[in-house]
Amino acid sequence: MAGDIYQHPLGRTISEADCTWFTLLTCNLNQNHFNADYAARNPVSAGRILVNSGLTIALVLGLSVLDMSQNAVANLGLTDLELTHPVYVGDTLYAESVCTRTRPSQSRPGFGIVEMRTRGLNQDGDVVMAWQRSALLPSRETGLGQDYFPVAKSGPLTK
Question: Which residue segments constitute the domains of the chain, with CATH numbers given?
Answer without folding.
Answer: 5-141 (3.10.129.10)
